[in-house]
Amino acid sequence: MSFIREGELTFIERFFANILKAGPMPKHVAFIMDGNRRYAQKCHVERQEGHSQGFEKLAETLRWCLNLGIREVTVYAFSIENFKRSKEEVDGLMDLARQKFSRLLEEQENWKKHGVCIRVLGDLHLLPVDIQELIARAVQATRSYNKCFLNVCFAYTSRHEICNAVREMAWGVEQGLLEPSDVSESLLEKCLYTSNSPDPDLLIRTSGEVRLSDFLLWQTSHSCLVFQSVLWPEYSFWNLCEAILRYQMNSSALQKARASYMDERKRQQMAKDQAYVRKKLQQEGTASHEDPVHQQNLLQQYTAMREERIQAFLQALEQKRVDFLDRLCTASA
Ligand code: IPE
Ligand code: IPE
Ligand code: MG
Fold first, then answer.
1. Does the structural domain 11-268 have CATH classification 3.40.1180.10?
2. Residue 280: CB partners within 8 Å, gap ≥ 6?
3. CA 157 / ligand 3 centre spacing (Å)
4. Which residue lies with its CA nearest to atom 14 of ligand 1?
5. What is the DSSP string of 163-182?
6. Does ligand 1 lie within 6 Å of residue 36's CB atom?
7. What digits encode the pLDDT tens for the residues 122-174?
8. Does ligand 1 come within 6 angstroms of the Cβ of 251?
9. φ and ψ of 202, to 5 deg
């Protein structure tokens, strides 16, 4: 069973998809795929079978998303908290990951054909080394594809991710790449594992649990959150359509909230830069500090320097991540 299932929608699914597509469509959908064990219990099958069917449902859901024109999907596959489950269950889930990532590597042509870039978001160090290596190879193999994006959150929690982002910024200051005053919401966001993705428009959690379980806490403040009672392995095309409809009913309010947040963020950064320049001019104590043209020039210079500094830091950060994946790929070659 592969990650992407080939195939078109049925006639009736296509008909409904076209009606949906007449409205605003989410560009990025996130899933908390919950309820595998309850499904196994309900169907009197082994727990591992529940997880395995959960994976199959992911492949099916990706096909629906592709057919609906949704280009980015992020899934919560395994949380750091999930390591606390029984050894037997964790081992079973790791075996499933091994199987699926190996399969993914065998099916590279398929990924190329669909142009799917796979990213694995999480603290890879927490995983067995052979899985780290498989993940690194899968990520490197698909990194240049850009038609669709599949982000698999594995060994992930949001608080761990945010904490890691803060550590990266501290590293930047320590290395002399950043000034402490460069720290901002916008910079923190660029240090998250999700830095290459827009925020999700729609987040769906199955199984009736109404909580986020430490998933994308930063990224979903302006997302439509939909909680559905269906267990993940039973998720259907119609459940997905219902969630999209709910997004469509809220989308204009969400867009407005997002735009106003971005405006406010820009305004705050501008005020911060202006305050810095004013302080600098006062320190200079020359007559030119009253000159508005001089003030404007200084502001432009300061802003350009700050942006350059941040760019260089982000490049160094990206290089650190690529080097880590390269080392893992070389180790497994
Ligand atoms: C989600 O289903 C999959 C993982 C967390 C790996 P669960 O395993 O949480 O199943 P339920 O929620 O207990 O039914
Ligand atoms: C969240 O589900 C994690 C995944 C779906 C991978 P959990 O089932 O682990 O979350 P809680 O324990 O119910 O909050
Ligand atoms: Mg659960």
1. yes
2. 298, 302
3. 14
4. 35
5. HHHHHHHHHHHHTTSS-GGG
6. yes
7. 999 999 999 999 999 999 999 999 999 999 999 999 999 999 999 999 999 99
8. no
9. -135, 130
Q: How buried is residue 79: exposed, middle or buried, by Cβ count under 10 Å (0-12/13-18/19+)? A: buried
Query: Exposed, middle or buried, 53 (CB in 10 Å: 0-12/13-18/19+)?
Result: buried
Q: How many CB atoms lie within 10 A of CB 111?
A: 22
Tokens of 49: 């079978």
**0.90 exceeded by pTM:** yes
146 token code pair = 């850009």
Tokens of 1: 């069973």
For the chain, which residues make up each domain, given as ranges? 11-268
Q: Is the CB of 52 under 6 A from ligand 1?
A: no
In angstroms, the CA 249 to CA 304 distance is: 41
CA of 211 to the centre of ligand 2 (A): 9
